[in-house]
Amino acid sequence: MASLFRRLLASTFVYQAPSILSALLAIVTLPLYTRYLSTADYGYAENLLTAIIFTSILLRFGIGEAFVRFWFDDEDHARRVDLARTVTSWTLYASTVVALILLVFAAPLSRLILAHEDASLMASGIFGLWAFTNLEVANALLRVEERLKTYAICAVLNILLTVGLTVLLVVILDKGARGYVLGNYGASTVILLVLWVLLRDRVSFRPPRRTVALLRFGGPTVPADAAAFALNVVDRTYILHHDSADAAGRYGFAAKLSTVVIVAVRGFQAAWPPLAYSVTDEAQAARLYARVTTLYVAVTGVVVCGVLLVGRWAVRALADDPSYYGASAALPWVALGWALYGLVLVLITVAGRAKVTSRNFPATLAGLVVNVILLVTLVDPLGIAGAGIALCGAYVVIVFVLYMLTRDLFSVPFEWPRLASAVITLTTIGLAGELLLPTHGALGLATRFALLCLAPPALVLTRVITIPELRRLQELRHQPA
């Protein structure tokens, strides 16, 4: 078990490191973007970027998830290489054909997604769809072999190139929303080409073959993955069409500031499935799933608590234009939604381990329905905060239904007393600070930050995590992998 935690910590750190760098650079660049992009332009760009990720999920048809799962079913090197070539080839051909078709309909698609016609902005998004889809599969090749150094270098280069290109296009050349989108995915294209060269023995440009088994496994995961991510599309689209592009821009800004939570979730998302599927002993895997879930809730819970307590100061510090300040109303809810998404990932790996992926869709569909109902109910009276609450409500439903549908597939002894203690402790600290402490000024910031510093000791006092466990985790961090 110790070696598994060491692997998880090492890989999660590597996957998180680029995101940490991205978050730090955001502190520098967000004031620039908010100065040169109106809330409407920011809303259009962020809605399109979210739509790209959603469409990519549909386009890949679960082949990436199938690749990660099947890689660990066969230890033969030659067959693994053939599997990688099949996946990269299928993704390349599928993404290219779909991108060419979408380009023909760029103008009507922009009206559908953005609520106004902008064919050139839509074309930029379609280019981004192609680059993002292929890069996701290339990164999966690195993840299954745990080529952490290569992953980290490419990810950091991607971030630096993205920032450079986006600043050039948005700030210097004043290309607005189009520059923002092209800056993001122009860099991704460069890194994709670099990875194709580095992984050339595992990349194929020949027409794909023998994809039936992969698609049969991956296909049932698509509705679930799409429905889960659709929550991030539906809320922004509803705000854009029902309210305004300005409100969508503020909501998108809140989502961007949730990076502090997204860093933890994305690192976990990248590191967890390969480790979870690589453990062959069922009893050991069950204990690992349970302990990791508790640690995940404790860590992300502290981060969300911090966002609730000091988020409004971050909004004012990073928004050059006061029209963005309203983003603070949705920020804690969006951050909590991202944290809940990580729990969805844990339960999805339970189904994936049993190779019964068809049960994911009913759970995510239920969450999507709840999300729509809550959006219609809450956005009018609460604005973008209502959209954030709707997002959280949907993820709570997904987690509950997924648990009920997967608990008979693979029995995980979740540490319910510890999980309950973590939720109660952090909720109490967050609400106490929000209701009792000042909401502005240096005194408010200082007292809230001091209260936040009490959260980790409180988790120890309530035995969510013990001192010996903390010492063991510290030892694992310094041991060679």
Helix content: over 70%
Q: What's the number of extended β-strand segments? A: 0
Low-confidence residue ranges: 476-481
User: What's the Cα radius of gyration?
Assistant: 22 Å
- Termini gap: 13 Å
Shape: globular
In short:
With 481 residues, this protein is mainly alpha-helical. The chain is globular, with a radius of gyration of 22 Å.
Topology:
Blueprint: H1 2-36, H2 39-60, H3 63-71, H4 77-104, H5 106-114, H6 119-144, H7 148-172, H8 176-198, H9 212-218, H10 221-243, H11 245-257, H12 259-278, H13 282-318, H14 331-353, H15 360-382, H16 384-406, H17 416-436, H18 441-453, H19 455-461, H20 467-478
Helix pairs in contact: 1-7, 1-12, 1-13, 2-6, 2-8, 2-10, 2-11, 3-4, 3-6, 3-9, 4-6, 5-6, 6-8, 7-8, 10-11, 10-15, 10-16, 11-14, 12-13, 12-14, 13-14, 13-17, 13-18, 14-16, 15-16, 17-18
Please describe what this structure looks like.
By secondary structure, the chain is mostly helical. The protein folds into two domains: 273 residues, no CATH class; 157 residues, no CATH class. It is 83% helix and 0% strand. It is globular. The relative contact order is 0.12. The C terminus is likely disordered.
